[in-house]
Amino acid sequence: MTVTAIPPTAQAAEPAAPEKKSRKKLLVLVLVVVAAAGAAYWFLLKPAPSGEEPPPEPGPMVALDPIQVNLSGGHYLRIGIALQFVASSHDTDGSKALDAVIDLFSGRSMEELQTKDQRHALKEELTEHVSEAYHHEVYEVYFTDFVTQ
Fold first, then answer.
1. Which end of the chain has fewer CB atoms at under 10 Å, N or C?
2. Quick check: 97 and 122 in contact, CB under 8 A?
3. What is the pLDDT tens value at each position of the chain, 149 positions in all?
4. Are 145 and 66 in contact (CB under 8 A)?
């Protein structure tokens, strides 16, 4: 019978092969776990895109005292407004809104204020002016008094 001796380098190579396979398996397993965690974050926990802001929530309401505005032809308009601010607003002073009312309604004719559609269009325009003056912290503008003479 002949005995063949295995060189020492060949014996060391055999145990290393299973270790390389286990490292590859471990590396693949780690990559799968990281990919799964990334996918879970992407679909479940990612923040909302910056372009899609939630709509503002209505906040406090401030009713302003009615004022009289001169119209054309010697007539006048007594107008009162209420401002509804967004919930996150800090400035609830009505002076900017009253200034916008005076600018928008002064010098208009009685005919411009008589129909519901015209008043609605002026209210929308007033809401835009007031919203800009308060840096978009006004949710809505309401007429509380509207009398012409």
1. N
2. no
3. 566 666 665 555 555 555 666 788 888 888 999 988 888 887 777 666 666 777 888 989 999 999 999 999 999 999 999 999 998 887 778 899 999 999 999 999 999 998 999 999 999 999 999 999 998 899 999 999 999 98
4. yes
Q: Residue 9: helix, strand or coil by DSSP?
A: helix
- The model's pTM is 0.62
What angle in degrees, to the nearest 10, is found between the helix axes of 95-105 and 116-133? 140
| Helix or strand holding residue 18 (H, E) | helix 8-40
The dihedrals phi and psi of 124, each to the nearest 5 degrees, come to: -65, -40
| Superfamily per CATH, domain 58-148 | Band 7 domain (3.30.479.30)
List Cα–Cα distances, 131 to 34, 96, 102, 104, 124, in angstroms. Answer: 47, 10, 15, 14, 10
DSSP string computed for 82-133:
EEEEETT------HHHHHHHHHHHTT--HHHHHSHHHHHHHHHHHHHHHHHH
Q: Find residue 58's DSSP bridge partners.
A: 86
Rounded distance, CA 1 to CA 35, Å? 57
